[in-house]
Amino acid sequence: MVPRGPTSLKVSPGLTGSKSIRDRQVQDDLAINFDVSLVDIMKRRMPAIKWREYDPDVIPLWIADHDFPPPVEVKEAIKEALDIGDVGYADSSEALQLMAEKVTEVNRISASPVDVCVTQGVLPVFWLACKFACKPGDEVVVTDPMYYPFFETARATEVKMNYVRLDFEDGYKFSDERLKDAITTRTKLIFVCNPHNPTGRVMTKQELKSIADIAVDYKLTVMSDELWEDIVFDGRQHISLASLGPEIADRTITAFGFSKAFGVAGLQIGYAIVTNREMMRKIKSIGFRDKSDPDEPALRGAGSLALAAAKVMLSSNVKYYIERLVAYLQNIRDLTYKRLKEIGPIGLAPLEGTYLIFPNLKSYGKSSDQMTEYLLKKGRVVVESGSRFGPAGEGHVRINIGTSKEIMTEALSRIEEALKTIKTS
Ligand SMILES: Cc1ncc(COP(=O)(O)O)c(C=O)c1O
């Protein structure tokens, strides 16, 4: 795994230099425990939508939040920001500097603070990419299956989607031939998601290189969503598309964030890296204009509390958290796969990254929507219907395994009980 944050990264002394935080970190180093119990977590996470949307007896394996508390340093940073009254219009300059240093050193994309744009999570970057690259009627190439909010963004910006299918049978490998076939004269944008939601695929350098070569040849913009960069298993390394050379860097918008690794989606902070200065100028003029225009909602950067947390999440102080999280999740993945294989004819592609599995349940003879409803009613677990993720998701469900061993074991028992009564083909 690429360690999060080079050791040279510094956060402001007021935030992590304090004795109390260092002391707590030492304590936490000893005490950190991802083995949250079902009862405890329900109490603790009640405010988050994941645990609120369904009846209290339902185990939520749907929305992609993990169930672990963020690092103690992150909580302390937010509290300290409040204590010093950091609640006015936010000064993002220090965060921009740290983001530029992080992508330069960790992602190997050479960036300065002017190449960084802080956003309210990664989702606004989808919108910026479509608005920047496409006019209504233009086309974007997107994988099928794909994280479905991207489909919604394409619809909202009136951009037509051409699918590149990823096949379950082929371990969801990316095909450059299919990519070329999907490109027409109206195609302006390629949307890449790596590590990939919902398939859990982590692209190889070769696959990324073929996308880069095609984008350069066909003069296309690329939006590379790398939000899941930290959650990669079995010693894999996440490779940033824009790190493959100046030509691809020049046409790529890369989106990063913190929500998946640190479990802080509610802070709503992400950042886009665009090292082509003219491209960045245009993107900022689309999203961050300050004149009011009813058709173009002005975006704002993140709030001061999220920025205070981000400074810590970008530092090496919390590297230990990511390392332990990934090790813990890898065990959850292994126990989940073992159990699902015992349960019945459930198709599983290797989970290389993310904490989202996308099993194929076609042998049970139900559509994705029917299976999702059935698992909720009969099993009291809630998963996401695969068909939301595009035509190739039909017959699959997406299960969020970002939870403790106890909770996942209980969820798997419920799934087993529910599936027992269905005849398989
Ligand atoms: C691939 C991907 N991109 C973007 C997002 C949204 O991220 P954020 O909540 O930081 O906007 C998610 C959330 O699950 C995701 O999986």
Characterise the protein shown here.
Helix 7 (123-133) crosses helix 13 (277-287). The protein has 2 domains: 20-68 and 318-420, Aspartate Aminotransferase, domain 1 (Alpha-Beta Complex); 93-314, 3-Layer(aba) Sandwich (Aspartate Aminotransferase, domain 2), CATH 3.40.640.10. The strands form 3 sheets. The chain has a 7-stranded mixed beta sheet with strand order 2-8-7-6-5-3-4, with helices on both faces. Strands 9-12-11 form a 3-stranded antiparallel beta sheet. The chain has a two-stranded parallel ribbon with strand order 1-10. It is globular. It has helices spanning 13-16, 19-31, 38-44, 49-52, 72-83, 93-105, 123-133, 149-156, 176-182, 205-217, 246-249, 259-262, 277-287, 304-313, 319-343, 368-379, 405-420, and strands at residues 59-60, 116-119, 139-144, 160-165, 187-193, 221-225, 252-257, 270-273, 356-357, 381-382, 384-385, 397-400. The protein contains 17 helices and 12 strands. By secondary structure, the protein is α/β, with parallel strands linked by helices. Mean pLDDT is 91; it is low at 1-23 and 26-30. Bound molecules: pyridoxal-5'-phosphate.
